[in-house]
Specification:
Blueprint: H1 3-26, E1 32-36, H2 43-59, E2 63-67, H3 74-81, E3 89-94, H4 95-103, E4 115-124, E5 126-130, H5 139-148, E6 154-157, H6 163-175, E7 180-183, H7 187-195, E8 201-205, H8 206-214, E9 219-223, E10 250-257, H9 262-276, H10 279-287, E11 291-292, H11 297-317
Parallel strand pairs: 1-2, 1-3, 6-7, 6-8
Antiparallel strand pairs: 3-10, 4-10, 4-11, 5-8, 5-9
Helix pairs in contact: 2-9, 4-11, 6-11
Length: 323
């Protein structure tokens, strides 16, 4: 390319960068929206609304939540991946998206190629809960029972390819057990069968199971997160129970369309980090069985790539067929 053309290209690039910087300095100047891929009242929706309010307060522009449920959160992610990359359309993505990338063959977007990380919001563990009639009071006892009866001890989940399903498959891999997966139409159905003694175990949500544990109707063996959760401080992690490195916490984060200026994403990330440090957010998360998750813009992309790789290994080892 001639030197004159190179000089012109460099000038145009500088002007474009300067324009983007100028826009970023005044961002936000209008209402933004956070698209949530699950119905109103879901965990993702509740968290989305908590952080939408925080962004509204901190950035002095309203951020609203728009529900676009379907395909385990992937319809929302696809919509935002195709949106204008200006920082005014964001999506709540989660572990459901990184799992889907490995179990669904017809996704029309890529977490790494079409979305840009902003910041993590929160994480919530599942809990390995068993029926008291099983006779297991801790993880080691549960593993011993499972190894003595390979393929006989069942665990329920809200469906094939769900986070609780894959938590059980990872448990099998790391513990050397052969728990039998029983898929249900949703969480309530699996809990009904656990409480009714029709299945001996589930990987379920902490707030719900905590209530049943108080009544002595279930035994909580361990949480699936890397650290104990504030909601159940006396329940150990699976890592503490001997499965080193076990972590299938349900994480949630904010993402923007690919191409959203870094300076804009940084403004959003800084606001989310500030929100996570506030007692108000901590109290709201605690009430919903979640804990603040400190993964900032610089590290969230690497976190997502590692999560994608982890679930690929689990899906392949469990021979879960793509659909």
């Amino acid at each position: 390319m001639p030197r004159k053309a190179l000089t012109l290209a460099a000038l145009l690039a500088a002007l474009t960068l300067g324009a983007n910087d100028g826009n970023a300095q005044s961002y936000p100047t209008r209402q933004g929206r956070i698209v949530v891929g699950f119905p109103a009242g879901s965990s993702a929706d509740i968290l989305g609304r908590i952080y939408a309010q925080q962004l509204s307060d901190l950035l002095k522009q309203q951020f609203i939540v728009e529900n676009r449920p379907g395909a385990s959160g992937n319809l929302a992610a696809e919509q935002v991946a195709r949106a204008e990359p200006d920082g005014y359309t964001l999506v709540v993505a989660s572990v459901a998206n990184t799992i889907s990338a490995n179990v669904l063959s017809n996704l029309k977007y890529s977490m790494t190629d079409d979305l840009a990380p902003v910041a993590a919001m929160a994480s919530a563990p599942n809990v390995l809960a068993v029926s008291p009639s099983l006779g297991a009071s801790n993880v080691s006892g549960f593993i011993k029972l499972a190894k003595a009866k390979p393929g006989e001890i069942q665990y329920g989940s809200p469906g094939v390819g769900s986070a609780p399903h894959l938590a059980g498959e990872l448990f099998n891999m790391m513990a050397g057990t052969k728990l039998m997966h029983i898929p249900y139409q949703g969480v309530p159905q699996s809990l009904t069968d656990l409480l009714g003694g029709r299945i001996p175990a589930v990987f379920g949500t902490a707030p719900t199971l905590a209530g049943y544990a108080k009544d002595g109707r279930v035994t909580l063996l361990a949480v699936t997160s890397a650290k104990r959760t504030a909601l159940l401080p006396d329940v150990p992690t699976l890592d503490e129970a001997g499965l080193k490195g076990f972590d299938t916490a349900i994480w949630y984060g904010i993402f923007a369309p690919k191409g959203t200026p870094l300076a804009v994403r940084q403004i959003l990330a800084d606001a989310l980090v500030k929100a996570n440090a506030s007692p108000e957010v901590g109290k709201a998360l605690f009430a919903n069985g979640a804990d603040p998750l400190s993964i900032t813009l610089d590290d969230l992309g690497a976190f997502v790539r590692a999560d994608l790789a982890k679930w690929k290994a689990v899906v392949e080892a469990a021979q879960i067929q793509q659909r």
